[in-house]
Design goal:
The protein is α/β, with parallel strands linked by helices. It folds into 2 domains: 174 residues, Rossmann fold (3-Layer(aba) Sandwich), CATH 3.40.50.1970; 201 residues, Up-down Bundle (Dehydroquinate synthase-like, alpha domain). The protein has 14 helices and 8 strands. It binds fe (ii) ion (FE2).
């Protein structure tokens, strides 16, 4: 076996009704003053938030509530941190989708560092994050980004000189994650599909990654198996609580695998395209996953060296896990994988890039900037342009 390392994994409290444990956890850890970061309105308008805030008040927990919507921007993080620094915050609780979790993660870190978060972003600032942060509890209300299990917070600035860059350190992996499928049950279908496709992308890209390990391989394959059977069930019946639980666990696993094995060209594209115009991360990943998988498999098939053969075998295993069909040979299973991904993109109505005002020129310019990350083969400019142009 080759050398590999495993980053810390957050404590996980999983299952329907587990949100009720949050107040007890806060009391047991002697937290008196907490910051609560949520998304927009869907959770805040729910009975869960009403119950939670009532129990905070009843148990004498002081909480300072901030919302983070759209993307996690430097202004949002710096603004919340500025307000919280005058208080003696014991811990941060982030409840919501990827934006709320990334904001909570970034706030918990920036409460222990000076200056703006921009100073500490990879490829943007010149300061190195210390890894110190306030205790952090993450509670996802969507199943997709896996942010609850990762070591980075993605910070976005949209526009001509925009970026999507990470505040990253092993120390930023949350302490505790509560996954309660009841909280995710009312997630709208379009968001369920987009975030689900993000999780599938993360699992597949980390499974075939050049940095994959025996540890991430097992988790990624199991995550693909869960996502492959639960996402179609959720499209049929969004209230299926078992499918919600499986998809939520698949998403958590995708966070662990991406944190340890990295990602591929679809996330490279999502980073560049998502900094140019507002497009939900799950939509850009979902819409490109089929075309990227097809072109990578085509490229790997063109040369019969042992590394490529091994990578094709992994795509075939991923196809078997996702579709549940384990009887096919490598070539047929790879084709089946491409087919199911493209079928999902078509049947689930995942938006094309033009629906977010991307133009041909945008894609040409973007293709020059898209990084391959840990994609298991090289791709030239023309191949990257083909991947993203198919879904213009
Ligand atoms: Fe992602």
């Amino acid at each position: 076996m080759d050398k590999f390392t495993i980053s810390p994994i957050p404590e996980l409290i999983f299952g329907a009704g587990t949100i009720k444990n949050l107040t007890k956890i806060i009391i047991n850890r002697s937290f008196k003053d907490i910051a609560v970061i949520t998304g927009g309105n869907s959770f805040v308008n729910s009975v869960f938030w009403q119950d939670l805030s009532d129990s905070f008040i009843a148990d004498g927990i002081n909480f300072y509530h901030y919302k983070s919507t759209g993307e996690t921007t430097p202004e949002t993080v710096d603004g919340i941190v500025q307000k919280l620094k005058i208080r003696n915050i014991d811990a941060v609780v982030a409840i919501g989708g990827g934006t709320a979790l990334d904001t909570g993660k970034a706030v918990s870190a920036m409460l222990c560092m000076d200056g703006s978060i921009v100073d500490y972003l990879e490829g943007v600032g010149c300061k190195v994050p210390t890894g110190k942060r306030k205790p952090l509890i993450c509670i996802p209300t969507t199943s997709g980004t896996g942010s609850e299990a990762t070591k980075n917070a993605v910070i976005t600035k949209i526009g001509k000189n925009g970026y999507k860059k990470s505040l990253r350190h092993n120390g930023y992996i949350p302490d505790t994650v509560i996954i309660d499928p009841e909280l995710i049950k009312s997630c709208p279908l379009s968001l369920t599909i987009a975030t689900g496709m993000d999780a599938v992308t993360q699992l597949l890209e980390s499974y075939v990654s050049t940095k994959a390990s025996p540890f991430t391989d097992q988790l990624a394959l199991y995550g693909l198996k869960l996502a492959g059977r639960s996402l179609p069930r959720l499209v049929e019946n969004p209230g299926d609580i078992d499918a919600r639980a499986e998809m939520a666990y698949a998403s958590y696993l995708s966070g662990i695998t991406l944190a340890n094995a990295g990602l591929g060209v679809v996330h490279g594209a999502a980073s560049v395209l998502g900094s140019l115009r507002f497009i939900p991360h799950g939509v850009v990943c979902g819409t490109l996953l089929g075309s990227a998988t097809e072109i990578i498999i085509e490229k790997l098939s063109n040369s019969n060296n042992s590394v490529n053969i091994e990578s094709l075998k992994k795509f075939s295993e991923a196809g078997a896990a996702l579709t549940g069909n384990k009887t096919m040979n490598t070539e047929d299973s790879c084709s089946n994988l491409i087919k199911i991904l493209n079928t999902w993109v078509d049947n689930y109505g995942i938006s094309r890039l033009s629906e977010y005002d991307f133009t041909e020129n945008d894609l040409i310019d973007s293709s020059k900037k898209i990084g391959l990350k840990n994609t298991p083969c090289t791709l030239d400019f023309e191949e990257i342009l083909r991947i993203i142009s198919v879904r213009l």
